[in-house]
Amino acid sequence: MGKRKVKEYSAEFKTKVVLEVLKENQTQAEIASRYKIPSSTIPSWIKHFLGNAENVFKGRQMEKNHKEDIDKKERHIDELHKKIGELTISVDFLKKKHREAGISYPQEFDRY
Question: How many other C-beta atoms lie within 10 A of the C-beta of residue 31?
């Protein structure tokens, strides 16, 4: 027996179906029949749609929060790059001083 492939629907299609159901011009069964989808899927689409409807009006605030998060992470990355640079300079300095003094250091330090 082969696996049954589950049909996936686009967000646009789901939205179209849910909006038609919410208009109440036709029953869920009629709409499901017209679009050839199981009528049992529509209630979960409606629940998900209505549960996330408030996000439509939060768009700008969500965008602002997202931008702030990105800015914060970029600042952290910049700080890490700066620290890497400082450590690289320190390692290079110590390697040079070891060579000048004739002191050996572990070969694994050569890869830095």
Answer: 19
Give tens-digit pLDDT for 17-68.
Answer: 999 999 999 999 999 999 999 999 999 999 999 998 888 888 788 888 889 9
Give pTM, 2 decimals: 0.52
Closest CA to 24 of 51, 49, 46, 6: 46
Domain 9-55 CATH (choose: 1.10.3470, 1.10.10, 3.40.50, 3.40.1800): 1.10.10
77: helix, strand or coil? helix
CA dist 109 and 112 (Å) reads 6
Helix, strand or coil, per DSSP, at residue 73: helix
